[in-house]
Design goal:
174 residues, Peptide Methionine Sulfoxide Reductase, Chain A, two-stranded antiparallel sheet, 35% helix, L-methionine:thioredoxin-disulfide S-oxidoreductase activity, Peptide methionine sulfoxide reductase MsrA
Length: 174
Amino acid sequence: MKTFVLGGGCFWCLDAVYQKTTGVTSVVSGYTGGHDPHPDYYSVCSGTTGHAEVVAVTFDEDIIPAEVILDMFFALHDPTTLNRQGYDVGTQYRSSMFYETTEEKILFEEAIERNQELWRDPIVTEVSRLPRFYVAEEFHQNYYAKHPEQGYCQVIINPKLAKARKYYSAWLNA
């Protein structure tokens, strides 16, 4: 099993797609990359902790290649906007990839290079060593599955799921 820690705006969006991805065994919403030793949703949303909203995606490489997980990441958010994804604005929504090993760092850098050709503007995704990962509150775990009728899910997440189904249907189990 391999785990990537990725931030691409609100963690609910990435969580919703990766939860439906074949070969993914776990998706945990959380916070990382900041200085506050006790982050919570409200402090992270204030933009003062330095943390990003992220997901820890654990997957079986014998079922789904790491490159597919990473290419999906770049398809599911706009990696060319600094500290912003749609209406979500602030450093907590930055495009980010947090590595634990040199191998992961190389995979992340290769994914940026590979996906740059799909974007007119430069990719600004931050690639950093993973500091401590803080699990987000239970309310945020598997949010879309628990609240599919909620407005944010309907307006923001459903289009991302539709895009994932269009380009990654071979890997989605729903």
